[in-house]
């Protein structure tokens, strides 16, 4: 049966299957713990056949990473409809889904370790390719947020708020993965609140940011995540 | 004269001088742009003599990085006296001094590039050593903040707030370095405000954090950075 399936696969289909299998393995363990033999076994093909499609583990790792990056960037897509807090909350849910699915791989990648050791030897090209891929996902997130804020040309402070909040979201996800001691639903909401709080801190210095924030808050429903934050801050200040 | 000085230097003194010279060079350019010849010239000694003290550029880079890490960790030291907002603001001033002094080197290091290429070839040991060094500085910052908050055993949410804020401070400094489009004094204050805002967001879920925050806010002077933040948030909510 497996053989029958294999025979019917075209080159591109087989490559895509191998990338999927590799991504699944690299998601759960560090790259140097995953062997080509294991990838071959999981794909139901021979080791030499893997090498027919990819020159080595490093290129398979890079391809898997590329697919993961595209997958993550796709999850940032959100219709520009309804209150902003709810939109961001849905995106955070999908971001944590991704982090959950690729936990150890995400963690190892963001801590800057495994890309280098993926081939046994280390490769400057892989390090550069990996860093460029991470940056492209950050850039996709940044552009999505600006689009949702209806901002074409961000002020330096607005850019800082959005980019530094993206770092905060990464850090929060990494800390969550390390023991999962806080319910992820709470952290998803917290990151929405964090965004509003960081924007509020900077708004005093920046008319564009103040305008965006006021506009956003005005659209929020009384039971939305931003209203929730405002009530909480008011309680703390009383 | 230079020769006279050189002759009087002991082994350890010479090593320390070379580390200082290397750190200065690595602070302003990427490691692969700095040659041993240049380090030798800046130290006023011959190239073979550099190799007498260090096996190669990689070990000199590691030593320079270690000194920079110790220097930065020292700047986190702050007497546990007076309002917390003012203490954190002073630390932020010294943090931005450091970032300012070591700009391009700090940037390249935190973006995960140069440690790998520092020797021309790449070295897994250097990558590991570099990551461990960065983590040790983050840990020093984390422990300092807990000490200032008078917390011995942090709750998971308090730990998350402190650690994720440290990531935010790193990201903010990196974004600032890229063009310096926002006055650094403003960002130093902003990070103090960010800390309070992030803590306020999480405090609703966490009694320990709420207690720490209330205690902190109660100690703040009417013209301190936290009072400033509260006034600003109140204005936004009105």
Secondary-structure content class of chain A? mainly alpha
Task: Write down the oligomeric state.
Answer: homodimer
Residues in helix, % of chain A: over 70%
Q: How are helices and strands ordered from N to C of chain A?
A: HHHHHHHHHHHHH
CATH-defined topology of one domain in chain A: Tetracycline Repressor, domain 2
Q: How large is the count of helical segments of chain A? A: 13
Chain pair sharing the greatest interface: A-B, 52 and 51 residues
**Ends distance of chain A:** 69 Å
* Radius of gyration of chain A, taken over Cα atoms and rounded to an integer in Å: 21 Å
Q: How many strand segments of chain A? A: 0
Largest sheet of chain A: none
Task: Draw up the topology in text.
The structure is a homodimer of 238-residue chains.
Chain A: H1 2-8, H2 11-28, H3 36-43, H4 47-53, H5 57-75, H6 84-101, H7 103-110, H8 114-117, H9 124-148, H10 156-177, H11 184-203, H12 207-219, H13 225-237
Question: Can you walk through the features of this model?
Answer:
- Two copies of one chain form a homodimer.
- Chain A is an all-alpha fold and 238 residues long.
- The first copy, chain A, has a domain at 79-237: Tetracycline Repressor, domain 2, CATH 1.10.357.10.
- Helices cover 76% and strands 0% of the residues of chain A.
- The longest helix of chain A is centred in the middle third of the chain and has 25 residues, at 124-148.
- Chain A is elongated.
- The termini of chain A are far apart.
- In chain A, 40% of the residues are buried.
- Chains A and B meet through α9, α10, α11, α12 and α13 of A and α9, α10, α11, α12 and α13 of B.
């Amino acid at each position: 049966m497996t053989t029958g399936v294999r025979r019917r696969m075209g080159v591109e289909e087989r490559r895509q299957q191998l990338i999927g299998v590799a991504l699944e393995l690299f998601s759960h363990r560090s790259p140097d713990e995953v062997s080509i033999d294991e990838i071959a076994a999981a794909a139901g093909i021979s080791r030499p056949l893997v090498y027919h499609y990819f020159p080595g583990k490093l290129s398979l790792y890079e391809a898997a990473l590329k697919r993961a990056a595209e997958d993550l960037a796709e999850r940032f897509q959100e219709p520009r409809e309804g209150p902003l807090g709810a939109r961001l909350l849905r995106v955070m849910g999908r971001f944590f889904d991704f982090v959950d699915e690729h936990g150890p791989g995400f963690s190892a990648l963001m801590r800057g370790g495994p890309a280098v050791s993926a081939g046994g030897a280390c490769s400057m090209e892989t390090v550069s390719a990996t860093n460029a891929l991470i940056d492209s996902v950050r850039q996709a997130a940044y552009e999505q947020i600006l689009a949702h804020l209806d901002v074409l040309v961000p002020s330096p402070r607005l850019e800082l708020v959005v980019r530094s909040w993206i770092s905060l979201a990464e850090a929060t996800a990494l800390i969550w993965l390390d023991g999962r001691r806080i319910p992820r639903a709470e952290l998803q909401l917290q990151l929405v609140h964090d965004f509003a709080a960081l924007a509020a801190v900077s708004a005093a210095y920046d008319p564009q940011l103040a305008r965006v924030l006021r506009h956003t808050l005005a659209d929020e429903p009384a039971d939305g995540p931003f209203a929730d934050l405002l009530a909480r801050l008011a309680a703390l200040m009383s």
